[in-house]
């Protein structure tokens, strides 16, 4: 998804919020669905499977969402994702070109463009920049801001972390890992600031001695949503980075989800260490 | 739908005697949207299709080129997030929902 398309989808989410009169957090995707005359049904908890469905029958629409994962943030995101398929232009064409049931996959490692678009739409709908930026500034950044965002927007921590990385001014990266192995890494300006070093790919083992490794090494800590933090050099995480740069690593266990969420934020560069000094302009 | 939608929209609009602007106003869409749709430079959302379908009194399936009949067929379509995780029970639940929606539409029409 290119920047222009992201802007378009963000604008569409804002237009829907305005249309539905949803101007404060937490945004209710179910209330928005009702505003659009879309019925919403929770699947029974014993019915696992797809996290959400958009069903069209004639001119009627309904959304069914899974409840077998007992996370309100996950469930709200699933409903908002389906609203994305309903509201974003050109999705009908993609959905029906391969028959009546669209074979789609969601997740940050997936390349299906309409799924990525619906995920991004859900993120913008539940955590609109205008409502979230002030909250992030008030909380100073880092994991505290992510947790405040998740709390206020009633979003899952991973969804809030991803939105935080996009809205915050501080270069950061989000890593999701399981059993000490990276599932995905989302970079938001950190690699650029660090001189475009090698990225962290799926399957990479988390380096020993980090806060993330400490939590991952203790299943009880993951289950108990334990937190840990660490000061590190950027090069410890990204091979080939500028060795002068340091970062803050903050990690938190995600409970029953079994994963560890890691937030890496770049520390401000000490100006005394800079070789080139700022020269006062002369007029 | 790529090939059918612009032509079908234009035909349905003309048969109802609407100008592009009139149709946009009646359907609650921005004024230039219809000309973009008919030129094929923009593609509709489900919400757009639903609004057009109501205003023109033709089925969205017809506009999308899925059926050749103007009336709603009650045909069900679904999209799932994480479809690969879907179980037989899951699909049965959704089919039941789709059937209930179709029955409701049918009883409204009768």
Percent in strands of chain A: 15-25%
Mean pLDDT of chain A: 88
State the largest interface.
Answer: A-B, 47 and 46 residues
Class of secondary structure makeup of chain A = alpha+beta
Layout of strands and helices, then pairs:
The complex is a heterodimer of chains A (283) and B (110).
Chain A: H1 3-20, H2 29-35, E1 38-42, E2 52-57, E3 60-65, H3 72-87, H4 91-96, E4 101-102, H5 113-126, H6 129-138, H7 143-153, H8 157-167, E5 172-178, E6 181-188, H9 190-193, H10 211-216, H11 219-223, E7 227-233, H12 234-237, E8 246-253, E9 260-266
Parallel strand pairs in A: 1-3
Antiparallel strand pairs in A: 2-3, 5-6, 5-9, 7-8, 8-9
Helix pairs in contact in A: 1-5, 3-5, 6-7, 7-8
Chain B: H1 4-15, H2 20-27, H3 33-39, H4 46-56, H5 60-63, E1 76-81, H6 88-109
Give a quick set of tags describing it:
heterodimer, A: 283 residues, alpha+beta, five-stranded antiparallel β-sheet, three-stranded mixed β-sheet, B: 110 residues, mainly alpha, elongated
3D structure, described in words:
The complex is a heterodimer of chains A (283) and B (110). With 283 residues, chain A is α+β, with helices and mostly antiparallel strands. Chain A has helices at 3-20, 29-35, 72-87, 91-96, 113-126, 129-138, 143-153, 157-167, 190-193, 211-216, 219-223, 234-237; strands spanning 38-42, 52-57, 60-65, 101-102, 172-178, 181-188, 227-233, 246-253, 260-266. In chain A, the strands form 2 sheets. In chain A, strands 6-5-9-8-7 form a 5-stranded antiparallel beta sheet. Chain A has a 3-stranded mixed beta sheet with strand order 1-3-2. In chain A, strand 8 (246-253) and strand 9 form a beta hairpin. Chain A is globular. The model of chain A has no long low-confidence stretch (mean pLDDT 88). The two termini of chain B are 30 Å apart. Chain B has 6 helices and 1 strand. Chain B is elongated and about 45 Å long. The longest helix of chain B has 22 residues, at 88-109. The model of chain B has no long low-confidence stretch (mean pLDDT 84). With 110 residues, chain B is mainly α. The chains are: A alpha+beta (283), B mainly alpha (110). Chains A and B meet through strand 2, strand 3, helix 3, helix 4 and strand 4 of A and helix 4, strand 1 and helix 6 of B.
